[in-house]
Amino acid sequence: MVAPDITPLARPLSQKWLSTLVNLAIVVCICAPLLDKTLTKTVAGILLLSAIPLTLFARYLHLPNAGTARLFAWLSTGLLASIVLNITLLDNILNDDGKTGLYSFYLIPLLLLPWLRLSRLNKQWFSLALALIAIISGTQALLEYSYYQVRAGEILHGQPIPFGNLSLCCALLCLLFIHRHNSSIYNAVLSTAVIMGILASLLSLTRGGWIALPAVLLFIALHRLPSLGPRKLITTTILAIGLSAVTLIATEPGKQVQARFTLAYDEAQSYFSENTSSTSVGVRFALWSIAWQGFQEAPLFGQGIASFYEFKQQAIEGENLNPELARFRHPHNEYLELLFSRGIFGTAVFIIYLGVLLILFRRRLLDADLSLCGQTLILCYLIFSLTESFFSLHVSLFFFVVICTILFYLNDNPDKSSEAPTT
Predict the structure, then answer these.
(1) Is the pLDDT reported for residue 30 higher than 80?
(2) How many angstroms separate the CA atoms of 251 and 246, rounded?
(3) 210 Cβ partners below 8 Å, 6+ apart?
(4) Chain-centre distance of CA 376, in angstroms?
């Protein structure tokens, strides 16, 4: 008796296992920036050096259903080319600042797409991955605050500012996937993630989050709540403001934020009255002043992407500034970082990059959730960039390009981007 041929059955099974493993790998890509900077660099290195994406590269260029994702990949590669040109002309491509390695992250969309094609990633997987890391971040924040009495992200992550901001990002993105037609369990998980992500942001005491939270919630409300009518919209807004006020006044994290607000005000006054640059706010004002000075000296093309540290050192020695400024490698403001390092030309290129992204999210993404996710992500980063060079940090840049790539890919493959489970 001839044994039956099981090859046709084994092949779909092996493909399913492969897709599941790739899904898990992509979940790691989403979670890594909120876990550890070294882990993020490792994951990025695997993506950048992996042989499998390179072998699939030629194939995926000719496959359908990758329109906006492929456009984003080439757009990011073009931005990288302009950055490499800046470094080549004004700096050393093998600079000690690690800027070349940082901005090589703009290649990730190009190399992540082949992996996404092997996956079975959909909106549910994506939203649950965001929820997972938001809940982990909130738990970590509570542990650090309760046991060590330090800012969330100080010990386990090592970078409280990007930790808090990215946690808030995940929370707000999870909020966009909550709908009445979803299953109660699914909505409960997402709601828990929203709370935990916001809690992690509050306990990290990042000032960018204070601005981003009300601004982005208002942005989401204007997009999602008009269908309720003006009366319900006003009622919802008042309730949200009241709840926020109670949180700030009555809870321990709220008291920490209040104290941080007061401290920031005192430090700002101290800087302008006594030129005190040893405080958190004073350091930022001093770094901003140095960056602005550098931009004025080379307004068209900037001083060079890897030149801020050396320029700052010269300013410290020449103007007798606070020696504590020596340990900072960027001006803690993305807009001044752009003007200093790339000048008007490079800043215009970056503005065009974000502008095209925003247009793609608004007009080319057919799924309302994915479209609003992309717009919310850009708005968050623009606000975070007021108090931090947010596009110039490894973890935040990695998170940005990975999330954008996934959003565009899910839009191009609506058959994979199935709806969340319903009751």
Answers:
(1) yes
(2) 8
(3) 257, 261
(4) 11
